[in-house]
Specification:
30% of the residues lie in helices and 27% in strands. With 269 residues, it is of the alpha+beta class.
Length: 269
């Protein structure tokens, strides 16, 4: 269950949190670019939890210092910080990934991102995804629409799964995962889950999907941006994602134009 059970506050000024996230994302971008250009120092985390870099850790420290100084009553959940159960009692929580797409960052791919969100009552109310190398910043507030570099964006109106441009790994297309029949998708890939969601929000792709358990920090900001652009976003079971859970995983994610999303879920059974 999401931890924040306090009543949702519709009068809260989400724009101020969005501005704060935007400033923090730019700081993260400056740090990330410095490491990217001078050479990435990386190693593997224990227990098979994937790679981490000096940049991930420096960005995490900088973001935590700045954001928590500005909002000391908020909780904190980050990929690169030790989880503090105190977040479960906080009304609002920062959920972020210092670098989403760390493997891409290490491989000198340009499509890595900083993903920053504020969650209240299990719902994302403000989110920013910033890609410094691509000079793209996606942003949204709950009920306020979604933008890319300050301009409004909208998801596609694709309905038919067959031929739809969808971001997914090859493993997601195995026949056993599709009881209703494997759709003939025009499949593409980007390393960053946050970026995949933003590409759906922008209408450059019709949908994205992942059936693996997904960390909240990878998708919280992108989830809101896609929704506010008109896409439908659920877990692979069709449920609305709920954030700031004690175990911060989601059971996969499916996002896309509303009619396409419905068609994908039908094929998934």
């Amino acid at each position: 269950m999401p931890a924040a059970e306090a009543p949702f506050d519709p009068a809260f000024d989400r724009a101020s949190d969005l501005a704060l996230l935007g400033k923090a994302a730019r700081i993260a971008g400056e740090i990330g670019l410095r490491h990217f250009r001078r050479g990435v120092v990386a190693w593997d985390k224990p227990d098979g939890h994937g790679p981490v870099t000096e940049a991930d850790l420096e960005i995490d420290r900088a973001l935590r210092a700045g954001l928590m100084a500005a909002r000391p009553d908020y909780g904190w959940l980050s990929e690169e910080s030790t989880d503090d159960p105190a977040r479960l009692a906080a009304r609002r929580v920062f959920i972020l990934d210092p670098i989403d797409g760390t493997r891409a960052f290490i491989a000198r791919d340009r499509a890595w991102a900083h993903s920053l969100a504020v969650v209240e009552g299990g719902r994302v109310i403000a989110g920013v995804v910033h890609l410094p190398m691509l000079e793209r910043t996606y942003a949204a507030t709950l009920g306020g629409g979604a933008t890319m570099n300050g301009l409004p964006i909208a998801a596609s109106d694709r309905a038919d799964p067959d031929g739809a441009k969808v971001l997914a790994t090859a493993a997601m297309m195995e026949a056993a995962l599709w009881p209703g029949g494997v759709p003939r998708l025009d499949r593409h890939f980007r390393a960053s889950l946050a970026y995949r969601l933003c590409l759906v929000a922008e209408g450059r792709f019709d949908g994205m999907l992942t059936f693996r358990d997904t960390w909240e920090w990878d998708v919280a900001a992108g989830d809101l941006i896609a929704r506010e652009a008109g896409a439908r976003v659920t877990t692979r079971t069709g449920a609305d994602p709920a954030y700031n859970a004690a175990r911060p995983f989601l059971p996969g994610l499916v996002a896309g134009a509303p009619a396409l999303h419905a068609g994908l879920l039908t094929r998934l059974g």
